[in-house]
Design brief:
Layout lengths: L1 H16 L2 H18 L2
Helix pairs in contact: 1-2
C-alpha cells in the first residue's frame, strides 16, 4: 500500500513539474516558504 502511494506521489510530481530539476526547485521553494514562517 505504501509503495503504491509513493509511486503515485512520484508520478504526480513528475507530471506537474516535467523534470527532476523542476521537482527540486519546487521542494526548495516550499522549504524557503516554511523557513520564512519561523523567522
Amino acid at each position: 500500500m505504501i509503495r503504491a502511494l509513493a509511486t503515485l506521489t512520484l508520478a504526480a510530481a513528475l507530471a506537474g513539474c516535467g523534470t527532476v530539476d523542476g521537482i527540486g526547485q519546487d521542494i526548495s521553494g516550499a522549504a524557503r516558504t516554511v523557513e520564512g514562517w519561523f523567522r
